[in-house]
């Protein structure tokens, strides 16, 4: 289970687990119990069944004693039949009770997993864009799936096993002392002999297992690097086949040697455990035989000895399990701690206590006022940035790579929040506007057109769930993608594949534009929407964008001169500041950053397009 990766044997914590062991506090326990609270009745039934199962588990041994003493030795065949039938009924009842326990237990644990996954998914949806750019996707998926799924094991196995083991130990000890105190004490005194070698041998095997896993990881690294496309090419080009083979052979030998040691240690452990497991029963036979043969005791019978041996065997496993309960609890708490660490994250971008929904029907002026933004305070990204985009106008933002262009536009739909200053729409700070309402009025076409794995229609309906077929087709015609769609065998039900890989870059981009057209936003942001396309695709998409930008307030990050020349104003950003602004000719005359961009980027594009013509 991924939530318990790196876990050692049941009785031992790894060094990492010891170092990061969570503090088991009253608050943590109460928080965990809140997930159990809705299912308290079902859990109560489980616990009642566990107690019943513990009691039923005693009956076969007690019945066996009567079968030997009263039926067989008493030569009472009718009693023998009744006792055998009773034993069969008891075994059947015990198994039926076990099935009921497993079913209810599984139902409760899976319902709790269901609740926690829903809670985690809803919470992650509220996290800001920065969370998904900084956290590893694998970690997010592990918390969402493996860690929460591990909770089912905690509930269905660890919790119920602790209760079951405690009940088994208590009921067995009570029954043992009711049978015969002397024989019971002999069997119980053997328990320390069982526990000590288990822990000693387990620790030794864990050390060998840790070394073996480390070497196996090293071997896997060699395999992954050497047999990958790039790795195998590099080996061939530098003729390093011999050295790689020798390295692989050396590590492979070490892996095998450690595996043999681990297996040998396990064999000796099984030998020792086999001796100690049978030592208790043998000592009981010896003591019981002495009392019957030498001491002439009439209080002890063959059936008594047999029942005591069976119960002692029944006692050993739960006692051993309870000796390691602290390890199981530590690992369980670590699992919950990892989950709660995500659930306790407070979204940095969220609605304020009082929010507004201003009308954007008549105008949509955008203003950046003394905006500052940084991921780290000592590395400012946007510095004292101010500009205003009048309603219905299109402003282009240009600048060198890494100058902060995308960050500037991401502040408008609050993918990030400003650190100082304000971004305003019609005079209202975007942080005061209800978040869903704000983003529903902003359309964004990014450089990478992301599509979900589904049909073309499903991806379009992501913008407007109740859109009619007529509205969908109208949006696609404006985006110059309708003819392509209807030419496909499945039309709008065509599967786009994972991340839209069945479509070309131009087709994906036109679909993303159609999606924004269907959304019909008041404000439009284009983040280098045509940068990765060829000139033919760009021309088709540019026509769609021209229609999309009509009567909308638009901010365009662009590197194509054709797009820039259409702008009502060009903003030149460098090092997080607006260093120049104006029309194309004005900026060229300034002989500054814009002219340098024009000479190094825009002119080359023009010359390439001219040569193709």
What this model shows, in words?
The protein has 613 residues and is of the alpha/beta class. It has helices spanning 15-19, 26-36, 40-72, 77-126, 129-134, 137-179, 181-189, 191-226, 229-237, 241-293, 302-323, 325-343, 405-410, 435-440, 456-461, 469-478, 482-486, 505-519, 535-549, 561-565, 584-590, 593-612, and strands at 366-376, 379-389, 394-398, 420-425, 428-429, 442-445, 523-527, 553-557, 569-574, 577-582. The protein folds into two domains: 23-343, ABC transporter transmembrane region fold (Up-down Bundle), CATH 1.20.1560.10; 362-441 and 553-613, Rossmann fold. The strands form two sheets. It has a six-stranded mixed sheet. Strand 4 and strand 5 form a beta hairpin. Helix 4 packs antiparallel against helix 6 and helix 6 (137-179) packs antiparallel against helix 12 (325-343). Residues 1-13 have low confidence and may be disordered.
